[in-house]
Amino acid sequence: MTSNAPPWPRKTRELHNHHFDSTISNDFRFRPDDIVIGTYAKSGTTWMQQIVGQLIFAGAEDVNVPELSPWLDLRVPPKEETLPAVEAQTHRRFLKTHLPVDALVFSPEAKYIYVGRDGRDVVWSMYNHHARANVEWYRALNEAPGRVGEAIAPPPASIRQYFHDWLDRDGHPFWPFWENIRSWWEVRNLPNVLLVHYADLKADMPGEIARIAELLGTAVEPGRWPAILDHCSFDYMKRNAARSAPLGGILWDGGAETFIYKGTNGRWRDVLSADESEEYERMANEALGYEAAYWLANGMRADRRQVA
């Protein structure tokens, strides 16, 4: 007898570095209504956490995303502290991960939202995140018990050099980029997975939030939509950055307002040459295939893309 069940992903490896301890997913106990928000860092993770938090709590004013939606595979704090804290949560849980699918324990019952963003925009956002990190950020990551691999160091002064280091060394000094995108693209047709693009969120946030609510099965009273949309806007998140940034932003010079920075795309256009940009696009096509590379660069609504 042939089963019609989809081929659910299976974990095949562990990932460790100055940020990751993927072994935590081996001991995590899923609940049927869990939500997992996946991204490759600086792709709209906090924005999606805000959106999901607003859907769960019906547009409440005081949703503290970092407390309610932990980064499960971050090795700080260690999993011995993280797992009991997450197990104690009584609300519908919405967790964050930056792991590729094959380094996760995947639940057929949980809902997965993956946010993609053009890698060039990722690097520009990541550079601000990295360059503004303070001594406590480096200490927390590099002195974490059990850290695997080399320490993370301050970035170069040149953002162009930063881009080339990231591109030539596939995600350096964070973690590989192409495998992360590819792994989530490959599971996009599973019934509990939704791919969302950063540019589509900017072009039509209400429409994208409606798609997310449908995946999650979240019934929103019509009168709560204005509050949800307002609280998911960049202006609102910037004004209330301390409720969005981890630890209220104390790990970055300038505080939470540095963590919630510009939220814009296309800043690389004023720095990269046509040849440099074409090299990135060539590598994207080779690593992902044309369809996935096109989605990564443009989203599903390329005709409505807003470039700031």
Automatic annotation (TrEMBL):
InterPro entries in UniProt: P-loop_NTPase, Sulfotransferase_dom
Alphabetic keyword roster: Transferase
Family annotation (Pfam families): Sulfotransfer_1
Transferase is among the record's keywords: yes
Domain Sulfotransferase, residue spans: 32-288
Keyword Transferase: yes
Signal peptide interval: none
Family: Belongs to the sulfotransferase 1 family.
Name of the protein in its database record: Sulfotransferase domain-containing protein
